[in-house]
Structures are given as C-alpha cells and as structure tokens.
Amino acid sequence: MEFTIEAFANKMILCIVGLSVLVALGSGIFFHLHENFYIAETVPFAVGVALAMGLNITKVIWLKASINKTVDMDTPKAAKLFYQAQYFLRLLLTAAVLLVAALTPDNIVNLLGTIIGIFTFPVTMRLMQLFVPPDVEILKPPTSTNHVQDAIAEIEAHVEKEVE
Asked: Which range marks the domain in which residue 113 is found?
C-alpha cells in the first residue's frame, strides 16, 4: 500500500471527528454526573467542540493543499516563504475562531469547549504519527523543539530532491 498525503489527510479528518465526538460525549456524561452542572451547559460545550472540529478539518484540508503546492515549487526559498505564510494564515484562522467563541454568549458557544476541541488537532497529529510507515521521512516526529523550522527544513530537503 502506497502512502499519500491525501490518504493521510482523510484519516486525520476521521480521527479529528472521532476525537471531537468522544470529547462532546465525555462532556455530556461529565455534566450529567455532577449536580453542580446543568444540561444547559452541555449543548454550548458541544457547539464549541463542533466549531473547533470544523476549524481543524479546514486546517487539515488547507495543510494538504499547502504541502502539495510547496512540493511543486521551483526553489526552496519560495517553498519556505509560501509554507511560512500558510502557517501564519492557519494560526490567524485559529485566533479568529477563538475570538468568535470568546465574544459569543456562553449559552451559545462555550469557550472552553472550543479550546479543548482545538487541541484535538495536535493530539490527532501525534496519534497519526504512530501509524505512519517507517520509511516516510517527512512525517516523523521532529527532533528539536522548533517544529516550524524542522518542518521547513524537511520541505526544503524534499523540494531539493524533486528538483534534482
């Protein structure tokens, strides 16, 4: 079976949906079991998780398109600049969703649910790395704490291989 970015992204989306559903169900059980919480708090929490799930799915689709375009670029410098811009735009999109959740009344969207839902993206990335074939170099866990620079270096190396 050959590894493709498209298949990986589709599995990531399924994993994000699964984790989001588990978080929403878990919160419903938590709110139901504790008498200090009411059922009215479960729905806004689930809406926050659903909002974050939509954001995460959008980010996966956008990331897939960015990787495909970056690999096809002519120079490593152009690929690096494009990837950095895309990373920054995804970060701005996350900030916008958090801002919307923070400004929306708590009886509609719960900010904590949105924050927890956003964390399903990095959790999904770590889970997916467990299932990546060992010969796929670009998706192995980074060796340093500077993840952005590691990703850019890996993309530059991949682009240089494609150019040769």
From this structure: 5-163
